[in-house]
Amino acid sequence: VSGVRSSFVVDDDAAAVCVVTCEYGEPAPGDMPVLAESSTLWELRRRVTGEDQITFYAPVGDDRLAWSQLIVHPTFERARLIQRRRWGGQSTLRVGYPVDELLMCRLLVSEGVLVVHGATVEYEGMALLFAGHSGAGKSTMAAIAESAGAKVLSDDRSIVTVRDSTPTVWGTPWHGTHRRGSPNPLPLTAMFLLVQDDADRTERMSPARATGELLVRLIHPGSRPMDMERLLDGVAAVAERVPMAELRFRPTETAFRLAADFARRGRR
User: Fold this and answer.
1) Which residue among 150, 160, 162, 189 is the one 20 to 30 A from 235 at the CA level?
2) Using an 8 Å Cβ cutoff, are 244 and 213 in contact?
3) Residue 24, Cβ neighbours under 10 Å: how many?
4) Which of 163, 255, 261 is nearest to 200 (CA)?
5) What are phi and psi of 63, to 5 degrees?
């Protein structure tokens, strides 16, 4: 484990939540219905035994090839990772991204914790989260904030939950353009929905709209009904406690300063 992920590694004596057995083999998708997918990169199917089967693909010419497969037991206590031998020129099993992200997202979602498509920065003691789909400008805003003196916790995906009645945010090792990620938690001060525009302004959202905007920007691959109930409760709790605004912005420091001003007002 190296790079950003190294700061997220726990000690060897930490108890395992899910034990993953790794093996070489030929991943086979099967004929069960696809319950969730991400473009052509992966797809989720559920076996009749209740196990979740996530197959990862790579483009090969005009087609695609299943190069890895994760089979997760319904209890989430164990999983199997099957991978083609020497795939991508590697002589060892690849157990990092995207396998680590998918497993962690499933675990966090089962506990009602949010994994948000959003960049988070620490500035003047405040934690500001900038949410948006791919291409919305999360990495751009993180870079602008860093140039203004902020510390980047994550420039692409952030973890949010309510801990002891306090909304709290963490960075993640799953970064975007910039290799940034911090496991340190901070009280979440304000959230922003990024909208690229030709002028800079903020417009505060109601908790009801904030709930909806957050919900469609969560990562929850193949969540089961009981998980979705916890997730909805978590989103509503965060939206009630943390001010959120639509941030229309140009890629300049002025927009970040505007967001910081909004956060200061919400903290008073």
Assistant:
1) 150
2) yes
3) 11
4) 255
5) -120, -165
Closest Cα partner for 213 from 85, 134, 116? 116
Q: What per-residue confidence (pLDDT) applies to 88?
A: 65
Residues 6 or more apart whose CB falls under 8 angstroms from that of 17 comprise 76, 77, 107
CA 135-217-191 angle, to 5 degrees, is 90
Q: Whose CA is closest to 153, among 4, 3, 262, 256?
A: 4
Q: Which residues pair with 246 in a beta bridge?
A: 193, 203
Whether pLDDT at 248 is above 70: yes
Whole-angstrom Cα distance, residue 190 to residue 167? Answer: 10
- The answer to whether the CB of 103 falls within 8 A of the CB of 121 is no
Detail the DSSP E strand segments found in 74-165: 78-83, 114-123, 126-131, 151-154, 157-163
* Dihedral sign, Cα of residue 147, residue 152, residue 156, residue 162: negative
Buried b (16+ CB within 10 A) or exposed e, 108-138: bbbebbbbbbbbbbbbeebbbbbbbeeebbb
pLDDT tens digits, residue range 75-129? 899 999 999 887 666 667 777 778 888 888 888 988 889 999 999 999 999 999 9
Res. 38: pLDDT tops 90: no
Burial of 83 (0-12, 13-18, 19+ CB in 10 A): buried
Q: What is the pLDDT of residues 137-174, one digit of tens each?
A: 999 999 999 999 999 999 889 999 998 889 999 999 88
Q: What angle do CA 39, 41, 42 make, to 5 degrees?
A: 95
User: 140-150 burial string, b = 16+ CB within 10 Å, else e?
Assistant: bbbbbbbeeeb
